[in-house]
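Below is how a single chain appears once it has passed through the pipeline. First comes the sequence as given, then the structure the pipeline wrote out for it. We keep one example in the README because the format questions we get most often are answered faster by looking than by reading.
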Amino acid sequence: MSRFYALLLTLVILGVIAFWLGWFNISTSNESAGDRVHVDLTLNKGKVREDADATAAKARELGAKTQEEIRDAARKIGNKSSTDVATGWTLDRKHIELEAGSSVDVILSRTGSDLKAQQVGLFPSAGSNLIVTGGQFKEGATSALVAIEAPANAHDGQVSVVADGRSESIDVVVKPK
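Resulting structure:
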């Protein structure tokens, strides 16, 4: 029963926010010849779409800003001397297209003499809803898989891969199902 009240409270809060944002309007009118009151609910689809587009633009902007901050952090780490970083790495592809609801593996390869166990940083762009896993190098391994999944609500974006003081991006295009 408490879940019902929690759901009801959530719906009321969302309704108040939607009303405050101007997504819908409620108006009433009285009939002069009776005790009838007409209640009209008007949905402003244009305002909803406008707010959704503005939110998506802010998410893309935040994603780009986050990605730039990741690159800056990678550059700062990369200022170590070359003897500190004895490995190099590459991605087998930097652009992928996948259908919503599917996933793809990208191979991350490394070379060098320091093949210690390592987890690379994997950062999907904000608002893309992409799910990224993997990137775990085992001791002595020269390759690791990075799995990129596009759930049904995923959008185009980028995945930043950060390791050994540098960052590279994988462009992801999500095709609707």
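The first strand starts at residue 24 and ends at 30.

See the next section for the split statistics.
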